[in-house]
Design goal:
With about 280 residues, the chain is of the alpha/beta class. The protein contains eleven helices and nine strands. It has two domains: about 5-65, Orthogonal Bundle (Helicase, Ruva Protein, domain 3), CATH 1.10.8.10; about 80-275, Vaccinia Virus protein VP39 (Rossmann fold).
Amino acid sequence: MQLAEILSQAVIRLTRSGSDEPQANAEWLLACVLNVTRTWLLAHGDYELSENELALYEKYLTRKAAGEPLSHIVGYQPFDGMDIIVSPDVLTPRPETEELVEIVSALYDKKGTYTFLDMCTGSGCIACALARRFARARVLGVDISEKALAIAHENIKKFRLHERVQLMQSNLWESVTGTFDLIISNPPYIPSQIVDTLTQEVLREPRLALDGGADGLDIVRPLCSVAADYLNPGGWLALELCKGQAAAVARGLQEIGWQAVVKKDIVGIERFVLAQKI
């Protein structure tokens, strides 16, 4: 069978299964099987797949139709110019988190020497992105999950950042010492009652990385309450949050002596909080 026909049938199959973005997912999976780009697929509709390629594509489609995230099937997720290794033990990096890295990077001189802390590091995507962007920076990635830290370690090794990115298992500040020029975090922030309403694909990701308690702020509050004790003078606290949370978190920080601003993401949602201690 030719590529175009196989792809068309795959899209129909994923659509019927209720998969998110069936066209994009069918293309990504086939591109991964053939080790080509999605653009290549469009230009080679008459390509004849081998039996092995067909078998592997069938295996991938079956997993996708069952609700498995694309990133878990292929084993990685594009993020800030990297293919970040992921697994069911970590949250798949989102475009919003990439936006946060971009916003924060504008606050620092690319040639400067810094210490950064990535709290709730998960896959280590933020830590790796900052280390690659700032060649003289040292980054500490902190997470409570030993399994998540194992994936973060794989990414640090993959991008040869082991000399400048370290990892620590800690329940927030429990084991952290020292001070930093930046504390950045994409913490669990989804209210518990909303988590169970998420798509079947999102629910395949670790609840520990999603569930932020009754109002979504169970991790954010203790994270923010003593963050100033771990910041160097002039340092920044940068957070990614859920829709409807950023303004309240910014006000809370202001009440305990911070200057805080809210930033919108690319679709106009108030998503990020940037703060400095006065």
